[in-house]
Amino acid sequence: MADERERYFKDEFDSSQEKERHEFKLNGGSFLFGSNGQEPVEPAAPIVPSESGLHTSAGSDSQSQNDLQDETLQDESLQEEFEPASNELQSPDYISQIRQIIPGMNLDVARGLVEKYRGEGDVVSKAISEYFEEGLIVEHEKPRNSSSPTAGGNEGAESNSNGNSRNGSLVGQPLTREKRRKEVTPRPIKRLKSEIEWRKFIGSLQVNAMATRPTLRPLKYGTELEILKSSGGLPTSKLYNTNGRKKVSMASFVKIFDTQQNREIGRLPEDVAQIVYPLINTDDVVFEATMVFCENKRLSIGDSFVLQLDCFLTSSIFDEDQNKELTPSRSARWGSNSSMVETEEELQSRSKKVGLLSLFDRLRLRTVDDKADDASKSSANSEEDGVEVIDLDDDDNDGDEKLEDIVAREEDDARRFSSQEEGVMNLNQLKVFYKATQSSDSLKTLPETEPPSTTINLTLRKYQRQGLTWMLRREHEFEKAADSQGFQNVNGNMMNPLWKCFKWPKDMSWTAQRMEDHTEVDLGKFFYANLHTGEFCLEKPILKTMMKGGVLSDEMGLGKTISALSLIFTSPYDSSLVDKHLFMDGNEDENLSPPSSQSSKKPYAMKTTLVIVPTSLLSQWHSEFTKFNNSPDLYCEIYYGGNVSSLKTLLTKTKNPPTVVLTTYGIVQNEWTRILKMDRRDADMDSTTGLFSLKFYRVILDEGHVIRNRTTSTSKAVMEISSMCRWVLTGTPIINRLDDLYSIVKFLKLEPWAQISYWKMFVSDPFERKDYRQAFDVVNAILEPVFLRRTKQMQDADGRPLVELPPKEVVVEKLTFNEAQNTIYKHYLEEAETSVKKGLARGDLLKKYSTILVHILRLRQICCDPKLLGAQDENDEDLSKSNQLLKESVDVNKVYQKVGLNESSNRLDSGRLNTIKSRIQEKYPTADSLKTLECSICTADPIELHKVLFTECCHSFCEECLKEYLEFQKQKELELKCPNCREPVNKNYFFTLMLKDGESPQVVPLREVAKSAKIEALLKHCSILQETSPGEQIVVFSQFSSFLDILETELANTFLGNGVKVYKFDGRLNLKERAAVLENFSTKDFDNQKVLLMSLKTGGVGLNLTCASYAFMMDPWWSPSMEDQAIDRIHRIGQINQVKVTRFIVENSIEEKMLKIQERKRTIGEAMDADEDERRKRRIDEIQMLFE
Amino acid sequence: MASLPKRIIKETERLASDPVPGISAEPHEDNLRYFAVTIEGPEESPYENGVFELELYLPDDYPMEAPKVRFLTRIYHPNIDRLGRICLDVLKNNWSPALQIRTVLLSIQALLASPNPNDPLANDVAEEWIKNEELAISKAKEWTKLYAGKR
């Protein structure tokens, strides 16, 4: 024994360092291994985790709690043995890990701790430190009864004298076949306790293993071996890269043990280890290894020997609860950061799936295709009942091509994990996708449903009536179908296509073949597996999507809101239950809990639809509801979170609860965050009374793409809303990535796709492999039943387009900087260019990224108005607010000085300026006299003071008129003369009036107060429209809210009290103000020109502004779709006039280049942004483009 | 066509409400930029007692651009050709947006009062005017009677 131990240590060359450290500590006696808390009370069988077997003392009550961190590193192979018998739904790993460290920790406490730290890294150690620091009072559970069939206990006590049993099984068993046979059957029971009722053979592998320890004697033919895992508790994420490719050699973690000697003897070859590793401790698969051949000599390190690896599936894999546990949806909710990176648990479950997949592949376990046309194949399969032991070294491929085909698919699946190419989605693909998802047939086949006029006061268009039919079907027909048992097993074709059917192979395992009385568990001929989720089933899985609801994805402007409202009005409450309610004749409330579905402990608000909308649309929804509501019984309540003391009471305990509860994403998110922050113990839903305390009849997400990133807190919160029917309205279900759809699918709880593994396997991965066809096919298959999309161009049954909108005209108007703008622009451009060049030269452009963005922002601001410089506009999300350069306030006047603008004006003859000034003052000495000025060009009488412009010859004009005239003269190459006296004029000597409240107007040189080119242009357009189309509303979009402020002032100065009303709509308004602004703006007024200044971000989506037919886009945005969205506020159903959009672009400026970038995005597709890095690189390209 | 700028409306109104003596200008029903104009021949000019019809059109760029004016009635005048085109500086290079329909028509009336054969448009008329002013004036009177007689 001692000899052996010594040698053991010498030979310990591939042991992980942690383990060594661990052992030395143990040797030092500073630490008693506490993990095996159940065992130590059994003095006869002190189970110790290390192979060396050095520990002889153990006791649960003397456990030291030092070095707990190390504990977490301990061999996972122990865990399964201590897993609580009850089937934990919540991350059994963590809980059992913790309970391993603190034996007997109350299960609830452990669960609470895991809950608390879940989603953060290092759950176990955090939980443990909290446990100690907070001094949680824990009722130690009584040590497990030693008679409980935990691992090793019994066996070890019986026969294991040296206590070395690592996993306690079969140690010291005599090698007689009879004895073995007895062992074989109890083994799963012993190992896996009550969870496993049976196991079944699925195939054998012959494996060439390599010895890692020398043996004293040759290993006998038939020696029982054990496959164990020793990753030292490394989290799966350490073993795999995010793309699923393994990082480290698995072979070092999969050991072959001689159960008799209880010591490691070798390891599996890498390829097998890879397959086996994730499966070893999973209960789902059991491996039995038997020594077959070792040349009958003692093994030295590096020698190879052959073993037979029998593989069994156990009952636990077919256990439904178990399958649920595997589904990662629970953990995905807690996933952090970027969108499709898997959480640890997701990764674990996926690696397990891959393992199973490869194992099946290796075992040549074939799918039985139950389609009729493949009958020959399945018969071929059935002939080879006796699956032979497969020799891995045998490269001969049986010549069975058909089988290869089937296997090829699985291999293909496996290969996905090595694919590192990032998939991208470009515009064409997006088009293909949208085209494929358009439901053109629906227009021909769907019957129409007219909503009841008793409740709704609205005439729907034909396609909307069809849409209503579809929506009603999505909500109701499933009940009928389920009742009529239409789903039950019509024939084999109904099988869920994701599942594969397998035939149990004949039991060829070592033990079975050598046991006379071996009886196989009779489980029928087939089993079914979903290799993509790792779910297994003995009964044929029938495809069913009972989800009620869907995605209404009509193109922008087709009236999704109307459709949703018509659905609400047609079916305002859960009729099945409310009817029952009537039968029960006033027997109130209590008994009314709905048939208990899994999540319905919450009270059921069966009369209420929850509508979640972006804040800007709240009032619009409310007013549309009110507008169309025809029934006094139905009403709509806006829920701000605080305004209803108990939503629960309101919706479930009152006689007439609101039909619609309107709320915003922000509120949902807020409430959810609050609940999360609440003390865990109080966090059960009973104590809350808000959105999450109820189950709604229906929930509708407007602009549902808001939740496209499933890791945002808003998304997470929205997913948690419980409801009978779930709807998503969005015109753009995909913004950037195909995976954007996943969030929607997940929200809809569209099983099985709501499981990330399904999605990843079938959509993300093929897409990344650039197998677009497959990805799209699958997406189509997923969405087809739940997705309705119509476009404006689609034609109805009569061949007419769905919507005939008046034409839309978008004109780019190129402007020239005024002189001051030009000078400042050049100055900043130089700065920016220098910075970019430096960055490029040094190669650290990326680091300077935000600085450069600030430079770009400055240039864009100058294009609008130099006054914007230094204004705080938080619109550019790429700019970190901490950016120093951005914070640095910009004093425009200083800038003027810096760029020498004032100097150049000094160079003008200041004497002459003064003379002119005094002459003008002489001529018009009083403020009153200034009010009699006339413009001979437009015959304005008097000229409004802010418009006044004086020439050198003291003649007055409207600034605009004169400039227009001079421009005209310039074009004709005529001399610039005063219209009144024909004296030559010089722009530099124009004067204007500076107006200040409470002061008389000051005569000042015009160039000092020059308006920016865009403001000029807008003012000009406004006054033209005022004359040509009086009463027309105008919408002005800008992304800079500070620019909107400037425009507001300018418009007010220019037109106020003169037939113009200015409205401003931006993020700073509260809900009431927003509603008021929109309402006031939309009422027609022929005496006043109404101008709505609209922030692109705030008002760009969802709003309906069809009252206006003129729009001005003051500044370009990076993405053209943003501008399109904004334009569609005006150009949509309800618009009766031709829409005219003018986009102002300053010539020879960064804006022109932005236009180019927009063009590029339109053609190559902006949806290409694969990830953050990619996006950044693209931006760098764009930056270079900007400064070319 | 874009609707009418305010200035045109204003001018039209003023022409109606405060007409210039001897001049009338009325916009056409269908096109408010097209005016039917009559100018009475100035007293003590060869065109006395004549009523001359003209057409006046305000181009889109009016008032940046001068209105277009043409005599419809035949007139014997060195600065007006056979087709009725008028040679007048304010209608050409000397146009200023400060000028109006009213002022243009006044200028034309003034042109009738003082023909300027040194800056001719109708060369033959101008030649005759220079060669024999009396003959030319009598011819002008004759034409006025012939073509521009009061109805």
TrEMBL record, chain A:
Residues 53-67 have a biased composition (Polar residues). Residues 68-83, 382-399 have a biased composition (Acidic residues). It comes from the Eukaryota. Residues 1-91, 139-186, 371-399 are annotated as: Disordered. InterPro entries: Helicase_ATP-bd (IPR014001), Helicase_C-like (IPR001650), HIRAN (IPR014905), P-loop_NTPase (IPR027417), SNF2-like_sf (IPR038718), SNF2/RAD54-like_C (IPR049730), SNF2_N (IPR000330), SNF2_RAD54_helicase_TF (IPR050628). The keyword Transferase does not apply. SMART domains: DEXDc (SM00487), HELICc (SM00490), HIRAN (SM00910), RING (SM00184). Residues 1-25 have a biased composition (Basic and acidic residues). Residues 1017-1184 form the Helicase C-terminal domain. One of its GO terms (molecular function) is helicase activity. GO terms for biological process: DNA repair. GO terms for cellular component: nucleus. The keyword Nucleotide-binding applies. It is found in: Nucleus. Residues 156-169 have a biased composition (Low complexity). Keywords: ATP-binding, DNA damage, DNA repair, Helicase, Hydrolase, Metal-binding, Nucleotide-binding, Nucleus, Zinc, Zinc-finger. Residues 935-982 form the RING-type domain. Gene3D superfamilies: P-loop containing nucleotide triphosphate hydrolases, SWI2/SNF2 ATPases, N-terminal domain, Tandem AAA-ATPase domain, Zinc/RING finger domain, C3HC4 (zinc finger). It holds the Pfam family HIRAN. Residues 541-751 form the Helicase ATP-binding domain. PANTHER family: DNA REPAIR PROTEIN RAD5, TRANSCRIPTION TERMINATION FACTOR 2-RELATED. Belongs to the SNF2/RAD54 helicase family. This is DNA repair protein RAD5. It comes from Zygosaccharomyces rouxii (strain ATCC 2623 / CBS 732 / NBRC 1130 / NCYC 568 / NRRL Y-229).
TrEMBL record, chain B:
It comes from the Eukaryota. Keywords: ATP-binding, Nucleotide-binding, Transferase, Ubl conjugation pathway. It is an enzyme of class 2 (transferase). It comes from Zygosaccharomyces rouxii. One of its GO terms (molecular function) is ubiquitin conjugating enzyme activity. SMART domains: UBCc (SM00212). The active site is at residue 87. Belongs to the ubiquitin-conjugating enzyme family. Its EC number is 2.3.2.23. The keyword Transferase applies. This is E2 ubiquitin-conjugating enzyme. Pfam families: UQ_con. Residues 3-149 form the UBC core domain.
